[in-house]
C-alpha cells in the first residue's frame, strides 16, 4: 500500500473528461474520522473536490432523515439519496452530480433529465401534493419496467425497501445506476432468495435500458466477485501460487478450468448472472450476450493481480492486500473507447472498501447534445426530504415545542427569576453566535507537564515505564515466554472468540493473514497457551 495522497487526486486531462467514482464508505459519519477526510469538517464538497469527481456514488451511508440535510445539500452538486424505509442506520445509497459552468464543454452532458429511487419503479415521489409512482408517469420514471421476471408487487416493493439503488438519467442518453447489492452475509436461505431476486430484477432492467437505446453506467458495491483472479480466498483454496504465476493471464491460462468453475459454480449463481451481463467475460458463450464492460479491468488489463477493493477488517488482511474485488464501474460496451483511465484507490482509507474511479471522454459527444430545459427531478434531495426551507431557526423552534420550560414554584419565584432571565440570555447568545467559528480551548498537556517541574515530569515517566515493565512481567509469569513463529519472530497473545473455546488464550504469528506464499503474510503459527 502506498501513502495516502494529501492533495487532490487529479485527472490526466481536465476539460474533456468526466470522472465517475464509487466508494462504499461503511458509514458516512465515521468516514470523516480518517485522514485526509478528518480535515474536511464533514464537507462532502471538499471530499468530491479531493477526488476531482463529477458523478459520485457512496454506498452504506448508514444515515437517517434527521441527518439528510448535511448530505443532501452540497454546493455545486445535485444530490439523490435513498435510505431504508424500515431499518434505520443501515444500507443507504447516494449519488451526487456536479453542476458544471455553462461554458464548460461537458455542461450539457451532465444535465440531469430524470431521477428514480429503487429498481422497480413502484416507489413514489411527491408531485403537487400527491404521491405518484415512477412507473405511472412518463415524466418521472426512466422506463424499462417490462419483463422484470417478477409480477408480485409486494415482493418488488420489498426489494426497494432497503435503500439500495438510485438511478439518474443524463442528457447524453445515459442512465447512471448506483447500487449497493445485497450480500447475504448471514448465509440464510431467505437472504439468498432476496439477493438473487434483487439481482435478476436489476439486471433485467439494465437490459431493458439498452434495448431502449440508452447507455448505462452501472456502478457501486455489486457484492459479486466476477473472476477467480479477483478473490484471494478462492485463489488460496485452489492452491494457486501467485509467486509462481504472477500475472492474471498466466493464472487463467494455467488454471482455466478452475477459472470457469469459479464462475459457473452452482452454489454461487450470482457470479454467472454477472458474467452473462459482461461482454468481457472469459467464457465466450456468456460474453456473446454481454452488454457491459468492466472499466477497471479494461484499462488495467487481465495481467494485474491483487486489484482488490475490500478487505476483512476482523482479520486485518488489508496490510497484506488479501481481499476481493466487488466494487465495479461497468459501462455499456460501446463506451469502452471513451474510457481514458480507470483504477482503484487502495491507498485511500475511511472504510473496509476503497474507492474506484473511471474517467470518460465526452467532449466530442457533448457538442451534439442540445441544451435541456428540464426541471430538477422531484427525487432530488432538496425536494424529496423538504430541505429547501430547512434552517437552524426552524430546528430550534421545533425543539422548543417539545421541551417546554419547567414550572416555577411560588416560594422560589424571587430566587429563580434571575435564573430564568439568565437562561434566556444564554439561549439568545448561542443562536446569535451559532454561525461564528470559535476555537475550542484544549488543555496543553505538554505545557502542563513542563509547568509541573522537571522532577514531577521524570517521576510520571518513570512510573509509566515501571508500570509497563510490571505488566509485561505479570503476563510472562502467567502465560510463560512467548514462542517464536515460523518467521522467527515473537508471537502475540490472542483470545479465542469461537463457540468451542470462548475466552481461551493462544499464541499466533503477529503478521496479518494473506497469501501463504507471501513472506509478509502470517505463517499460520498457532499454539494454545
UniProtKB/TrEMBL annotation:
Cofactor: binding comment: Probably binds two magnesium or manganese ions per subunit.
GO CC entries: nucleus
Site location (Important for catalytic activity): 327
Keywords from the UniProt entry: Endonuclease, Hydrolase, Magnesium, Manganese, Metal-binding, Nuclease, Nucleus, Zinc, Zinc-finger
Cofactor section: Mg(2+); Mn(2+)
Annotated residues for binding of Mg(2+): 24, 60, 221, 223, 352-353
GO molecular function terms noted in the UniProt entry: DNA-(apurinic or apyrimidinic site) endonuclease activity; double-stranded DNA 3'-5' DNA exonuclease activity; phosphoric diester hydrolase activity; zinc ion binding
Residue span, GRF-type domain: 485-529
GO BP field: base-excision repair
A Pfam family matched in the record: Zn_ribbon_GRF
Site (Interaction with DNA substrate): 353
Record site: Transition state stabilizer: 223
Keyword presence, Transmembrane helix: no
Zinc-finger in keyword set: yes
Catalytic center residues: 180, 221 (proton donor/acceptor), 353 (proton acceptor)
Ranges in a coiled coil: none
Family indicated by similarity: Belongs to the DNA repair enzymes AP/ExoA family.
Annotated protein name in UniProt: DNA-(apurinic or apyrimidinic site) endonuclease 2
Amino acid at each position: 500500500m502506498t501513502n495516502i495522497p494529501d492533495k487532490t487526486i487529479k485527472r490526466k486531462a481536465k476539460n474533456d473528461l468526466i470522472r465517475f467514482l464509487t466508494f462504499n464508505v461503511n458509514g458516512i459519519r465515521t468516514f470523516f474520522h480518517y485522514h485526509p477526510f478528518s480535515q474536511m469538517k464533514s464537507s462532502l464538497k471538499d471530499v468530491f473536490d479531493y477526488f476531482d469527481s463529477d458523478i459520485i456514488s457512496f454506498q452504506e451511508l448508514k444515515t437517517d432523515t434527521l441527518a439528510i440535510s448535511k448530505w443532501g445539500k452540497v454546493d455545486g452538486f445535485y444530490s439523490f439519496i435513498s435510505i431504508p424505509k424500515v431499518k434505520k442506520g443501515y444500507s443507504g445509497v447516494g449519488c451526487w452530480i456536479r453542476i458544471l459552468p455553462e461554458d464548460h464543454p461537458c455542461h450539457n452532458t451532465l444535465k440531469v433529465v430524470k431521477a428514480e429511487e429503487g429498481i422497480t419503479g413502484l416507489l413514489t415521489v411527491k408531485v403537487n401534493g400527491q404521491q405518484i409512482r415512477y412507473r405511472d408517469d412518463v415524466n418521472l420514471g426512466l422506463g424499462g419496467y417490462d419483463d422484470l421476471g417478477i409480477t408480485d408487487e409486494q415482493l418488488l416493493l420489498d426489494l426497494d425497501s432497503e435503500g439500495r439503488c438510485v438511478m439518474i438519467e443524463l442528457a447524453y442518453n445515459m442512465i447512471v445506476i448506483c447500487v449497493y447489492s445485497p450480500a447475504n452475509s448471514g448465509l440464510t436461505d431467505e437472504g439468498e432468495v432476496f439477493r438473487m431476486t434483487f439481482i435478476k430484477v436489476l439486471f433485467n432492467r439494465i437490459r431493458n435500458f439498452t434495448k431502449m437505446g440508452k447507455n448505462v453506467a452501472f456502478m457501486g458495491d455489486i457484492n459479486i466477485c466476477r473472476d477467480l483472479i479477483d478473490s484471494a480466498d478462492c485463489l488460496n483454496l485452489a492452491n494457486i501460487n501467485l509467486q509462481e504465476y504472477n500475472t492474471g493471464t498466466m493464472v487463467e491460462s494455467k488454471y482455466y478450468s478452475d477459472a470457469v468453475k469459479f464462475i459457473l459454480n452452482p452454489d454461487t449463481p450470482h457470479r454467472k448472472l454477472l458474467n452473462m451481463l459482461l461482454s468481457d467475460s472469459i467464457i465466450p458463450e456468456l460474453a456473446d450476450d454481454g452488454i457491459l464492460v468492466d472499466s477497471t479491468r479494461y484499462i488495467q488489463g487481465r495481467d494485474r493481480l491483487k486489484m482488490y477493493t475490500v478487505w476483512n477488517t476482523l482479520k486485518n488482511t488489508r496490510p497484506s492486500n488479501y481481499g476481493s474485488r466487488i466494487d465495479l464501474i461497468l459501462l455499456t460496451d460501446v463506451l469502452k473507447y471513451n474510457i481514458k483511465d480507470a483504477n482503484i484507490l487502495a491507498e485511500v482509507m475511511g472504510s473496509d472498501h476503497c474507492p474506484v474511479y473511471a474517467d470518460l471522454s465526452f467532449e466530442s459527444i457533448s457538442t451534439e447534445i442540445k441544451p435541456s430545459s428540464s426541471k430538477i427531478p422531484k427525487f432530488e434531495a432538496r425536494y424529496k426530504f423538504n430541505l429547501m426551507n430547512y434552517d437552524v431557526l426552524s430546528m430550534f423552534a421545533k425543539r422548543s415545542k417539545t421541551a417546554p420550560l419547567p414550572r416555577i414554584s411560588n416560594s422560589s419565584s424571587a430566587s429563580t427569576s434571575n435564573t430564568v432571565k439568565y437562561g434566556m440570555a444564554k439561549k439568545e447568545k448561542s443562536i446569535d453566535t451559532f454561525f461564528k467559528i470559535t476555537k475550542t480551548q484544549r488543555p496543553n498537556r505538554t505545557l502542563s507537564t513542563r509547568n509541573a517541574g522537571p522532577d514531577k515530569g521524570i517521576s510520571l515517566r518513570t512510573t509509566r515505564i515501571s508500570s509497563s515493565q510490571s505488566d509485561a512481567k505479570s503476563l510472562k509469569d502467567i502465560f510463560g515466554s512467548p514462542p517464536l513463529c515460523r518467521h522467527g519472530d515473537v508471537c502475540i497473545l490472542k483470545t479465542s472468540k469461537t463457540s468451542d473455546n470462548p475466552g481461551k488464550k493462544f499464541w499466533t504469528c503477529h503478521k496479518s493473514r494473506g497469501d501463504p506464499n507471501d513472506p509478509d503474510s502470517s505463517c499460520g503459527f498457532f499454539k494454545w497457551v
